């Protein structure tokens, strides 16, 4: 059973049609010339015929997606590139009269026309007695228009000029990407003479999509992922409703989790396109093929009068507000709760956040019961139907969703959410408890049977059901055409004790509360592992009502092979790996003051504890703070060193400077018994990297003001959703 009609039946956008055509061309080029470094002329001529055919598809390169950039009469757009820079395909645009002086490529090049006429004058290069001056002799002229092409060898020199009155669009296909051709030269004249290094284009762009076209696609039935590539703190200030945070410098760690299918339609967003094209280049090299940049970024979206949202996990938090607004979820205020607890009423308060959050702070009398565990375990805490059950969280969403979960399940108890959660509790002048641990109660046989019946009823009303092993195998076989996410929603301990291979861990409450941190592809298939007949069903029911994905349940066989341990962390690489540095070596370098150390994990983690001498900078601004001496050693650290290694590799590539990373990160430093420092004195980039919770404010007045602003913001989300008009929420009726 599914919650949407198959996305495969949706109309194909011109962007996706182009991506399919480019993928087919690249595949054929690789078949015809399987070794790009040693391709021979006969192979390249066959490839040229394929490029001509692609160029004749002028409809695939419309001006709203590809236009000459103001101030850049020659504009280059990347269409494809391998991780090693091979098989690099570009669309070159120019105004009439655009010209390039004599230059070589140092790799083979094929040019085919889309529109306009590009005149190529090809020259033979001959050495002269002067080692820095060569002569050029004309060899041939080739005019390249639609349906025509030219093949150039690595040593051949040519000029190009757009002749006539029509703007030009030409496909340029190279054996190696432009930004990797460090040995190219350009001559001072057509006769030759002195020459200099021919630098790569100052900017390479990617196909654009207009705000209106993006909104139309978001409201359509085809799969699409919108990724905001700014650091998460900047993202939280203003962003599109359905944009998932995926910061540029963290894509190596996030992209595969958020958008696992490489042919997924992806739209990249930032403020004004300054970072989105960099992100598009990175994703193209890492294998994604259907990428566009939102024209004008969030600035352009806002200029057209479209809605922008502040905050984090907005679709999920807005979902909670819609639930309360439409279903009138009961609530209790902190004063009444305090009075009831003080006089010993028959009442149970459950904290529906994660165990880690519960440990950080909670109400003094609450029990830990994360969202997906509520129906599964509530009877062990409230076996008497007369017991009043109150669900709390830190703010509003998980209180509301948790309470409504129990109500929809039909437990006999009176249920309410704690209005405004622990924020309201603190605003009332009361205290929280810190450092508490609470084991989750195991359901007995009778309780489990009741929970299963109730969860099954909710799942049926939400329109979701189980698939068998054959259907799952079919889904897995179709992963090249349809995105498939497979989640295990049990507790961390249960997952690490034994889970199905390839299934990700996503505790059910968090999958609903922070959906955009686990998946970014709308209209994708989501399969939840149902181990107990309860938790996957209640989680899936909420995901189905949230409406962004198709939801299915799968019951693993009793003897299914299981894998133990934490979820593997996959890191994608497209740069040469940076060199690691051990903690003892870093300590020696710091003592000698011979290294600049930066922490790139997060401001919150840095303030909590960092290597002494480290400063914190959001990765996308790190270059601003590097030492002026280009030879000065730079070391990066992060919590476990994984992010630091990825950032170090990119920074070293971009700056051509010595950049290393701390192996094992700050945890490895602490594991050596080395002291950590704390505090915000070394923070260089404010809260660019993440939105800072008011709970972390030292100033109580600022904290309380932050609480009030947060609560006002969340209460305003329903009206914002109505103005935006692109949400898919479909709540089930009361039983």
Automatic annotation (TrEMBL):
Question: Which branch of life, at top level?
Answer: Bacteria
Q: PROSITE patterns per the record? A: RHODANESE_3
The Rhodanese domain, residue ranges: 220-310, 343-434, 488-561, 591-678
Cited Gene3D superfamilies:
Jelly Rolls, Rhodanese-like domain
Keyword Transferase listed: yes
Query: Is Transferase set as a keyword in this record?
Result: yes
User: Which keywords does the record carry?
Assistant: Transferase
Q: Which SMART domains match?
A: RHOD
Task: Give the species.
Answer: Achromobacter agilis
Enzyme class, spelled out:
transferase
Q: Which GO terms describe its molecular function?
A: thiosulfate-cyanide sulfurtransferase activity
* Record-given protein name: Thiosulfate sulfurtransferase GlpE
Annotated Pfam families: Rhodanese
Instruction: Quote the SUPFAM superfamilies the UniProt record gives.
Output: Rhodanese/Cell cycle control phosphatase (SSF52821), RmlC-like cupins (SSF51182)
Enzyme nomenclature, EC number = 2.8.1.1
InterPro entries of this UniProt entry?
A: Rhodanese-like_dom, Rhodanese-like_dom_sf, RmlC-like_jellyroll, RmlC_Cupin_sf
